[in-house]
Amino acid sequence: MEAERGVDEHLDTQERGTPSHTRPMTLSIPDLATLTVAEPDDGIVLVTLDRPDRLNAITSAMISELEEVVAAVDLDPALRAVIVTGAGRGFSAGLDLREQGVAPGAEGLGRTVGSFMWQDHLATLHEKIHRSRKPWIAAVNGAAVGGGFALSLACDIRFASTSATFGAVFLKIGVSNCDMGTSYFLPRLVGASRAAELMLTARIFDAAEAESIGLVIDVVDDGEVVDRALETARLIRENAPFATWMTKETMWQTVDAPSLRHALDIENRTQIMCSATGDTAEARAAFLEKRPPDWSGL
Question: Which of 50, 96, 156, 179 is catalytic?
Fold first, then answer.
C-alpha cells in the first residue's frame, strides 16, 4: 500500500467510523463494492471509501465507482452537495500497490500502454470531481496520503478531524510527487513556496498545520468531521442550484484566468445566464414576503 510505511504511527489505534445514516436515497448506484453511499439529509450525498481493512487504499474498482457517483450526482437535480470520507481509522492511504487492478480496457495490453492507461484512469477521476456540477467536500478522518491526499485536494472544501494527517508521498516509492493533480491543486491552495516544501520533502503533516496553511477550513474532534461537513453542505443547499453550479465553475476557471479581463468576461456571461433562470425574481419575491426562496432548480 502506498506510504504504508510510516503511516501507522500517525493513526490512533481506536477505530473511528462515520455516523450512521439511514435516510432513504434518491441516488441509486447498484453493486458498489468499494464505496457506501448515503443521503444523510435532503439533497446531500455522503460517499464513504469503504475498504477499512486496507486503510481505504485506492484500486481501479474504487476509481470506477467514484466516477459513477460523480456522473450520477451531476445528473440528479435534487442533489446539491457531496461529502467524501473514509471508513474506519483513515481517509485513504493512497494507491493499493498490492491490489490496484488494471484500468478498464487495459487487460492484455503491453506494459507501457497499460501503465499509461492506468495513470490516466487515476488522474481523470480528480478532474471529474473538480469539474463536477456539485460542490464536493472532503471530511478527512485519519490519514490522507498519496492518492488519498490528491483526492482531498480535488474537492472544493476540506475539513479534518484532529487525528487527520496529510502528505504528498509519491517520492517515497520512487516516483515524482507531481501526480494525480497534486502539482496543480496544492500550489493553488497553499501557495507555490509552501507546496514546494511539502512536495519536495514528502513529509506527513498533521491537521493543525493543514489548518494553519489554509488547506482545511476547520479541525474538529474525531468522530465529528462528517457532521461538520454537513453544516457547510446545508448552507450550500440553501442557495440557488444553477447559481451554485456556476459559482463553483466560474471560481475555478478564474483562478486559471490569464488576466482580470478574462475573469470579468467569464463572470459577466455567468451573471447573465443566472439571471435568465427566474431565480433572481424568486429571491426578490421571497425577500418581500419574508419566506425562504423556492428555487426553480436546474
Answer: 179
Is 120 one of the catalytic residues?
A: no
Q: In this predicted model, what pLDDT tens digit does every residue of 181-225 receive, in sequence order?
A: 999 999 999 999 999 999 999 999 999 999 999 999 999 999 999
Pick from 87, 1, 19: nearest CA to 51: 87
Query: How many CB atoms neighbour CB 120 within 10 A?
Result: 12
CB count in 10 Å sphere of residue 2: 24
Which residue's C-alpha cell is 491552495?
189
Angle, CA 104 vertex, CA 98 and CA 109 arms, to 5°: 80
179 a catalytic residue: yes
Predicted confidence (pLDDT) per residue in 17-32, tens digit: 444 544 556 677 878 9
100, pLDDT greater than 80 = no
Q: Out of 121, 126, 130, 156, which one is annotated catalytic?
A: 126
Quote the cell numbers at residue 176. Answer: 515524482
Crossing angle of helices 260-275 and 241-255, in 10° steps, is 170
Q: Which long-range contacts (CB under 8 A, 24 or more apart) does 220-223 make?
A: 220/159, 220/160, 220/161, 220/162, 221/161, 221/162, 222/12, 222/14, 222/16, 222/141, 222/161, 222/162, 222/163, 223/16, 223/19, 223/161
Does 77 score more than 80 pLDDT? yes
**138 — pLDDT class (breaks 50, 70, 90):** very high
Its pTM stands at 0.89
